[in-house]
Design the sequence.
């Protein structure tokens, strides 16, 4: 990652509304390369991740995946699978958050989904095996301008409270 981790963590927020614009090929490649290297959790569990992304030619490919209306216009999802086992969820959470922070660092928005996604549809995208589970996925894409503005206003109002005399 290019920026200091603490800065990336501060910069990141859950993004629920995305620009209707596919993730650029160079960003998709960077993210895929990162996901390929992000496979072993600190407690030793192996997981695997993939990026499922719309393209310029097939913008609608992700529309039917199923996120129960919690996410608008996502043009990508990071989907992962992990074997059942001791501390597998801790490792999976660590690895997916690392991927989330990498995505933030290259300018993409993200939102974790641990429950509001149709598991069977996402399972097909990563060809999940009978011994694996998909504990969570994350939406990924360019943050919608109005959502970015709304979020930065929220941040300013928190950091600059109005003074009372
Ligand atoms: C482990 C985990 C699972 C989550 N699962 C869902 C989910 O199923 N559906 C959803 O809409 N948001 C989900 N979220 C997103 C949270 O609701 C989100 O982090 C919360 O709105 C706080 O927003 P903030 O990150 O901007 O502070 C999940 C977040 C985490 C960390």
Sequence:
């Amino acid at each position: 990652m290019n920026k200091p981790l603490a800065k990336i963590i501060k910069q990141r927020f859950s993004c629920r509304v995305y620009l209707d614009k596919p993730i650029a090929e160079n960003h998709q490649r960077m993210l895929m390369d990162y996901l390929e290297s992000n496979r072993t959790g600190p407690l030793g569990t192996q997981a695997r991740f993939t990026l499922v992304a719309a393209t310029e030619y097939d913008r609608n490919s992700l529309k039917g995946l199923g996120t129960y209306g919690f996410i608008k216009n996502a043009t990508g999802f990071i989907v992962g699978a992990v074997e059942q086992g001791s501390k597998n969820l801790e490792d999976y959470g660590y690895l997916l958050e690392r991927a989330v922070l990498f995505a933030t660092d290259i300018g993409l928005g993200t939102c974790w989904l641990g429950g509001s996604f149709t598991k069977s549809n996402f399972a097909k995208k990563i060809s999940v095996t009978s011994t694996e589970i998909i504990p969570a996925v994350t939406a990924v894409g360019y943050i919608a301008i109005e959502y970015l503005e709304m979020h930065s206003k929220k941040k300013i109002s928190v950091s600059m409270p109005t003074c009372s005399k």
Q: What stands out?
A: The two ends are 45 Å apart (CA to CA). The beta strands are 47-53, 76-83, 109-113, 132-133, 137-141.
